[in-house]
Amino acid sequence: MMCGTVVVVLCAFAVMPILALNFTYETKYLDVPVDHFSFASNVTFRLRYLVNATHWRKHEGRPIFFYTGNEGDIEMFAQNTGFMWETAPEFRALIVFAEHRYYGQSLPFGNNSYSEPKYLGYLTSEQALADYALVIAHLQKDQDRRSPVIAFGGSYGGMLAAYFRMKYPHVVAGAIAASAPIFQFSELTPCEAFSRIVTADYNSASAECAASIRKSWAAINNVTKTDAGKSWLSTMWKLCKPLKTLHDVKDLKGWLSDVYTNLAMINYPYATNFLAPVPANPISVMCSHLPNSSLTDKLLVKSLFKAVSIYFNYTGSSKCLNIETEASSNLGDLGWDFQACTEMVMPMCSDGHNDMFEVQIWDFAKYSETCYKKWKVRPDEKRAVRFYGGKDISTATNIVFSNGLLDPWSSGGVLYNVSNSTVAVIIPEGAHHLDLRESNPADPVSVRTARKFHRKFIRLWLRNYRLPA
Amino acid sequence: MMCGTVVVVLCAFAVMPILALNFTYETKYLDVPVDHFSFASNVTFRLRYLVNATHWRKHEGRPIFFYTGNEGDIEMFAQNTGFMWETAPEFRALIVFAEHRYYGQSLPFGNNSYSEPKYLGYLTSEQALADYALVIAHLQKDQDRRSPVIAFGGSYGGMLAAYFRMKYPHVVAGAIAASAPIFQFSELTPCEAFSRIVTADYNSASAECAASIRKSWAAINNVTKTDAGKSWLSTMWKLCKPLKTLHDVKDLKGWLSDVYTNLAMINYPYATNFLAPVPANPISVMCSHLPNSSLTDKLLVKSLFKAVSIYFNYTGSSKCLNIETEASSNLGDLGWDFQACTEMVMPMCSDGHNDMFEVQIWDFAKYSETCYKKWKVRPDEKRAVRFYGGKDISTATNIVFSNGLLDPWSSGGVLYNVSNSTVAVIIPEGAHHLDLRESNPADPVSVRTARKFHRKFIRLWLRNYRLPA
C-alpha cells in the first residue's frame, strides 16, 4: 500500500469489512478488445465481472446497478459496496461489479501485462469505460425491454462512474459518484489541499495530536542522526529491518505519511479491516497516544510508535514492523502508479506549516523523470482535463457527487451543485466513500441522509428514463 | 470516386466550386499522437490544419470556427465551406480547417499509412476527435481569455462536429452539423431509405426519367447478352475499355448507380465542378434526355448515354468514358472504404420496385467477408451506436442538425428537434450540405433561412458561453 500524499494512490480497494464475504455472486467473464480505439490489432482478453440476479426482474426491464471497478481486485469492491446490495432489492435491480482492466484477474496479457509499455499501455480510463459499455451491451442483449443502468463507484471508481455518464449517456441513465476527486488535476485544485484536510482530521481529534505529528519529523531526524539513534529507534519501534542509512529514515517517514493519510480515508465510525484491523474512529484512538506535543524528541518518537501501532498492530499479533509491507507487490498499487504516471496526474504537496507533513513541493519535471525511470512513459499533465473537461462539466446530467468532509480526497471533489441534475451531497462526518458502504448502527445521520438522497435520485432517473423511439 | 448506394461513401469532398480558391489561409501542422487512447507507443505525426486569422480578435476571446475535417484533402473543404468564410467576419472569428488523419497530407505513417492494419488501424473517428481537441488546445494555449469554439462539418464531417460537441462539450460550445447521417447505422434506419430518396429526386424531375432508369438495368442486360451487343454498347457509349465480360457489364451498372447517387447529392441550383463540371440542377438537365420510358432497349440505352454525358462530359472534352476513373486511387475513397469496413457500417439496399435501382440486399456477413479480404479487418456493426448513442441522444446540447430533403443522406439525418438546444433544420430544396456552401444568387429561400438560423444559434451559444470559475 502506498496511499500517500505524494505518491498519489486512491486507496478504495484497501478497505475490507471485518465481516468479509457477506455478499455472494456469480463470477463471469467477457472477451473484450485490448484496444477499443483502433483496428490495429484484434487481440482480446477476458474481463471479469461479478453478477447477482437474485432480485432482478430482467424481462420487466428493471435496472442494472453497475459498479465501475477501480484500481483493485473487483471482489474487494463487491464486499465493500454494501449500499448497492442493500438498495438493489427495492429496485429489483441486477447487481454487477465489473473489474477494471489490469487489476485483479482482468489481465490483458497475463503475466506480461505489467512488463512493458507495449502491454501495459492499454491501461487507461477510456479503455476501461469502453470495456464497461461492452459488458452492459452483453447484459442487455437478449432483453426486449432494455434495462436502464445506474453506475456506482467510489474514489477512482466514482470518477469512472461520473465519466461513464458524461461520455456514454446513452448507456448509463445516472451515476452515483462517491468521493470522486475529478477536480484533483493540475490547475484545478491547489496541490496542498489534500494534506490540509488530512491535518484537519488530526487537529479535530486533538490539536496536540496534529502538532505532535508536525514536530515528529524533526524529532525523527534528530534522533536518527547517529548510528546509535538509528539503532535505538529500530529497537524501540521493533522494525523488522533496522534503519541503516538516511534513505531508510526517509522510507520510514514516507511510511508514516501514508499511515496518516490512510487513516484519514478510513476514519470510519466503526471498526474496519485494512490489511490489519483498525478500531472505530481510528484517528481519535491514535491521537489518544499523542496528547502532548511538547515532549522531548525521544519521548515524542516513543509516543508516536504507540500511536501508529493502532494502524499496523491493533490486534497485537505483529512481531515486527515492516515498513515495506505490500509495497510494490500489490497489483493495485502498481497499476495505479502507472495510471498516475500517464493520465491520472494529481499534483500533491505540503508546506509543513498549514499542514502537519514535511515540506514537499510539487515538481512536475521531477515527477515525469521518476515516471519515465519506472515505466518508460511520460505523464500527460493536461490529458485528463482535455478528455473529461476539468471543472467545465456544466452539460453533465444525472450525476450525484458525494463527498465526506473527513476524506482528504474531498479536496478534489465536486462540492457544489453543477446543475439541477448534477448535484453535490456533502457528508460532514464521512470519510472516503462511507456512503457506499453497508449501513451500520454507528453511521452518522449525514450518511444515512446521503443514502436516502442517492435513492431518491436513482428513482428520479429511472422514472425519467426513456428509450428512443 | 465510389459514391454509390451500396459502396457507402460520403462524397462531400468531391464537390468543388467552379471558381475554386476564393479563400486563403495559412497551412500549419501540429504533432499529435498516433494513438490517443493508449500509452503503448509514443509515435506522433504531423496533422495539417488551415488557418485564417484576418478577422479574429484573439485577445478579446472571440470565437474559433472549427471545421472538423472529413474523408478528404482539407483544402477541398476549405474551398467548399463558404458559409464559414462568410460568417466569420461578423463574429470576429478565427477560421480553422483541420484535416482528418489518414487523408490529404495528414498521413500518420507516410506512404505506409495504408499498407496494413497495424498502420491503418488508427483511422477512427474517436482518434480524429482527439486530434481536433489537441489542435484547439494549441490554438487557445496563450490566450488569457479562452475563445469558445464552434464546430462545423458537412456529411461525415457533420457527424464529427456533432460527436465532438457530444463527447467534448468542454471543448466545443456548439456544432453546426450539416447533412450528418448519424442515424444511418444498423437498426436505426431502413437500408432502402437512401435509394428511395435518390429515386424521388429523379421522379420529381420527371416520372419518365426515374422509370427509364429503372427499366435501363434490364435493357443493358438484354443488349449486352451477346458479344455483338457488348461491342455495340461499347462503341455507342465511347467506352475507353470495351465491355468483354459479364463482370464488365456489372461494373458499368455500378458506375451508373454511383452517377445517379452523386448527382442527387450535388443537385445544386447552380453549376458546380465535380471531377468534371456539371450544370445547375443537374438531375433536371439529365432527365431532359430521358422523357420516355417506353423506348426499346437499344433506344433506351442510347438515351441513357446522352443523359449521363452531362455528368462525365458536360464540357464535351472527354474523348472516351472511363468507368474506372478515380476508382480506388483516391485516398479519400480508400480511407472511407476502410472506415466503412470498421466503425462506419451503414447498411444500404434497394428493391428495384420502390426505387429505381437493381435489387441489392444488405448482407452483413458478405459485407464483412469483403472487408476482410480488402483490409484484413472485420466491421463492428454495433460500434458506432455503442460509442455515439444511435438515436439515444437526448442529452446532447447546442447542435443544429441541418438536412436538405433532396440529399439522399437525409435518410440518416436528424429531422426532428431532439431538445430545446439540439434542433433540426430542414431545407426542402437542398442537396448535400448546400447550407455550408457560399451563398449564391440561385440559392433557394430555404437555404438562406437555414443559414440565418445557424447564425442565430451560434450567437445564442456564444452569449451563453461561460468558462468555469
TrEMBL record, chains A, B:
Keywords: Carboxypeptidase, Disulfide bond, Glycoprotein, Hydrolase, Lysosome, Protease, Signal, Zymogen. SUPFAM superfamilies: alpha/beta-Hydrolases. The lineage of its organism: Eukaryota, Metazoa, Ecdysozoa, Arthropoda, Hexapoda. It comes from Zootermopsis nevadensis. Residues 1-20 form the signal peptide. Cleaves C-terminal amino acids linked to proline in peptides such as angiotensin II, III and des-Arg9-bradykinin. This cleavage occurs at acidic pH, but enzymatic activity is retained with some substrates at neutral pH. GO terms for cellular component: lysosome. It is found in: Lysosome. GO terms for biological process: proteolysis. InterPro entries: AB_hydrolase_fold, Peptidase_S28, Ser_carbopepase_S28_SKS. One of its GO terms (molecular function) is serine-type carboxypeptidase activity. Its EC number is 3.4.16.2. Pfam families: Peptidase_S28. It catalyses: Cleavage of a -Pro-|-Xaa bond to release a C-terminal amino acid. It is an enzyme of class 3 (hydrolase). This is Lysosomal Pro-X carboxypeptidase. Belongs to the peptidase S28 family. Homodimer.
